[in-house]
Amino acid sequence: MEKIDFRAEGKQLAWDYLLVTLGALLTAFAFAAFFLPHDIAPGGVTGIATVLSSVTGLNVGLLSFLINLPLFAIGWRRVGLRFAVRSFISMILLSLFIDVMPDFDLAGNMMLAAIFGGVTMGAGLGLVVRAGATTGGTDMAAMIVHEHWNMFTVPMVLFAIDGIVVIIAALNFGVQAGLFALVSLYTSTKTMDSVIKGFNTAMQFLIISARQEEIIRRIHTELERGCTRLEATGTYEGRKNGTLLCVVSRMEASRLKKIVSECDPHAFVTVCDVHEALGEGFSYHQHTA
Residue 83, Cβ neighbours under 10 Å: how many? Predict the structure, then answer.
């Protein structure tokens, strides 16, 4: 029977909850410093709470908590206890931080508020997701809708919810506020994707060449990288061709292109982005959801 390393598990758990706390703090800062001073409601439950706060006078954090509560109560079984507990703690922290943190206009104008608020919120949400949690019940709502009407995927439902929130915000705060809410939604999504996928981006090369040995030698000596030789057969002529698979950093990509071009100008090369590269030769971050 495999032994459980409780010390490692404890460290990972502490790290995950640190990420959840930092993520909630960053997201709350985005609302306090950028969104709330300019009436920007960037989708989700907190966006709904922002609109309702302007109508009812209640705090955004409190409203966010009250909206999330029934969604968590209905949806926690569908996402598992571990994810639900982490997400519930994240939601409580975000609601608390938003109400405790005083509002202040850091940007000075709505455009900067939408851009930098979106980046800050995206970074915060990305940290929370990397810790295996979420901050809002819209994920739960999307899963419930998908379960009952499977023609609607979870991303489709989330997009629809955000769209409805932005439209309501535009009706309540004005068209300009609605448009800037879209800007903040876009920047937050892009930033969150970058944080979730990691910053260890790389480039993957597939190289088909008759002069593989020379290319391999120069990759080893000049880039100090390894590569993998794959056996492939061209379907047009039925000829067997050796194919090299090599993953390098973006800084090394141009050097590898030059090496291949100098060794074999007739080589066939494809290049694609790798969102994250882990292991020897690249930074390694262990993550358990």
Answer: 16
